[in-house]
Amino acid sequence: MQTLLQDLRYGARMLMKAPNYTLVAIFTLALGIGANTAIFTIVNAVLLRPLPYPESEKLVQMGRAFAGSDDAGALNEPKFVFLRDNSHSFEALTGTQGGPDLYLSDENQAEYVGNMSVTADFFRVLGIPPAIGRGFTAEEDSPAGERVAVLGDGLWRRRFGADAGMVGRKINLNGAAYTVVGIMPPGFEYIGPPDVILPMRVNRVSRNEGYNWTVIGR
Length: 218
Description:
Distance between the termini: 58 Å
Oligomer: single chain
Shape: elongated
Order of helices and strands: HHEEEHEEHEEHEEEE
């Protein structure tokens, strides 16, 4: 221990005699430590840490594969319907889409809120049902379905004071009335914590060729 202390004192004296060299050494060490920390954070989030859903190892993202590429592209509505109705390898499939912010308004307050649209099996596939109320029915997830919504926990607490009586009430989104059917649990995230979740209202005979559906199976 005494030898180690002597070495440390000697090293400190040498560094003090060459301040320019010392600054370069400190900067190099800081840069290396910072880069390693950043890389580990990304690897941990993407490869090591499991997804925040029950039995997340059973979740699979599905998409188009192109020759010479390992990237999976998004799917469209007709392909999702075909896979959902004909695949026998999955307990359930869900399609999701992000959307532009919606204008949430009432007589007291107005704000833009983030939203996403999902098919009826979304909560079943991820294994996380609403903490209060319920998810969407197959009838609500159809073109003629009623306008319903599930609120994210953050919006529910911030805007509605964590009132459990919100289930069954109506909110105004972009000038249209939606009935709240559920409230998500605290900490729920899907590419960030959503403010509002809406049904996709799947059209079984759609010819929409827009490849903008993220499809996940369990």
